[in-house]
């Protein structure tokens, strides 16, 4: 299948590096990252599902964050690994657009689920007496539905924009995946309208969650400063710092990659930047949320003890 008015039916993914001596070491490095990501996220999903004490709104969002992380790293890494061990890492036009759609869907969904998690922490810390009423199962499901609606809308906008472009004789994508900016650069009829559409959609999907998270944490910080108990303040700071470390890593690398003109950010730098939100963040999320969370560690010990007994 070729793009409309295009002569290109397949693309070649350049990969992360062209250096022959680095291909095998990079293959095993990113294979290790992928295995850690899969084990970490699947482990957290199973742990939350098996332990009733983790069936609360906060862990409901952890559960769905792990599903999103697992899904979108699986969309990217297996094809990326092929570039390290094959001379030409080919991908058909239809497969490239499919990868682009699911990549955008999961990345945007993650942005909004992080903002839903910030709102959950705001209610838990600032309005603890009405927490279970405010964050009822129905409200959590509506928030999750909103997360995926935004993900689907953004993915359709980006994929539709790229599919409207024409690709001529050049089919070499300077990236390890079918990403928006490398495909835009490859097109032979791109214009300012295409760049503006990408900027507007990306800005919306970054700014709305960031504003939500910022407002939530300003209110949380104000509330924490009024907590008289040292233990209470420590617990609140610990919970919030865990979430903020994930937010800064994820949105920082994403904003650096997309909220600049393609002419200002060389694609080689863009590839390195994209590693943080496509590979590093999904790998670290389950580690951050489990190693720094007392309830998760206690649930893990109890589950392990039951299995041993």
How would you sum up this structure, described in words?
This protein is mainly α. It has one domain (10-308): Rhopdopsin 7-helix transmembrane proteins (Up-down Bundle), CATH 1.20.1070.10. Helices cover 75% and strands 3% of the residues. The chain has helices at 23-50, 57-85, 93-126, 131-134, 137-163, 180-186, 192-224, 230-258, 267-291, 294-308; strands at residues 10-13, 89-92, 172-173. It has a three-stranded mixed beta sheet with strand order 2-1-3. Helix 1 (23-50) runs parallel beside helix 9 (267-291), helix 3 packs antiparallel against helix 8 and helix 7 runs antiparallel to helix 8 (230-258). The longest helix is centred in the middle third of the chain and has 34 residues, at 93-126. The radius of gyration is 21 Å and the shape is globular. The mean pLDDT is 83. Its main location: membrane. Keywords: Cell membrane, G-protein coupled receptor, Membrane, Olfaction, Receptor, Sensory transduction, Transducer, Transmembrane, Transmembrane helix.
Tags for this entry?
mainly alpha, Rhopdopsin 7-helix transmembrane proteins, 10 helices, 309 residues, single chain
Contiguous uncertain segments of 5+ residues: none
Number of strands: 3
- CATH fold topology: Rhopdopsin 7-helix transmembrane proteins
| Biggest sheet overview | 3 strands, mixed
What distance separates the N and C termini?
Answer: 56 Å
CATH homologous superfamily grouping: Rhodopsin 7-helix transmembrane proteins
Strand order of the largest sheet: 2-1-3
Family: Belongs to the G-protein coupled receptor 1 family.
GO cellular component, one term: plasma membrane
Subcellular location: Cell membrane
Keywords: Cell membrane, G-protein coupled receptor, Membrane, Olfaction, Receptor, Sensory transduction, Transducer, Transmembrane, Transmembrane helix
């Amino acid at each position: 299948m070729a793009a409309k008015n295009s002569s290109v039916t397949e693309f070649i993914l350049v990969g992360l590096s062209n250096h022959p001596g680095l291909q095998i070491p990079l293959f095993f490095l990113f294979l290790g990252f992928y295995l850690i990501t899969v084990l970490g996220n699947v482990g957290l999903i199973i742990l939350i599902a098996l332990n009733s004490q983790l069936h609360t709104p906060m862990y409901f969002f952890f559960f769905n964050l792990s599903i999103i992380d697992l899904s979108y790293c699986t969309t990217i890494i297996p094809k990326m690994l092929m570039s390290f061990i094959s001379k030409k890492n080919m991908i058909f036009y239809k497969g490239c657009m499919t990868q682009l759609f699911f990549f955008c869907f999961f990345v945007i969904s993650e942005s909004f689920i992080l903002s839903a998690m910030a709102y959950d922490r705001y209610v838990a810390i600032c309005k603890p007496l009405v927490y279970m009423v405010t964050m009822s199962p129905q409200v959590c499901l509506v928030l999750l539905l909103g997360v995926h609606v935004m993900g689907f809308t953004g993915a359709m906008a980006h994929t539709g924009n790229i599919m409207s472009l024409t690709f001529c004789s050049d089919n070499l994508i300077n990236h390890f995946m079918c990403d928006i900016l490398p495909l835009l650069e490859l097109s032979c009829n791109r214009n300012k309208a295409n760049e503006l559409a990408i900027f507007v959609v990306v800005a919306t999907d970054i700014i709305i969650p960031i504003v939500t998270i910022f407002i939530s944490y300003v209110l949380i910080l104000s509330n924490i400063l009024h907590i008289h108990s040292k233990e209470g303040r420590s617990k609140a700071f610990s919970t919030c710092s865990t979430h903020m470390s994930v937010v800064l890593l994820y949105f920082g690398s994403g904003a650096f990659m997309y909220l600049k003109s393609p002419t200002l950010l060389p694609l080689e730098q863009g590839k390195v930047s994209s590693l943080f939100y496509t590979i590093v963040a999904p790998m670290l999320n389950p580690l951050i949320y489990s190693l720094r969370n007392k309830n998760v560690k206690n649930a893990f010990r109890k589950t392990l003890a039951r299995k041993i007994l």
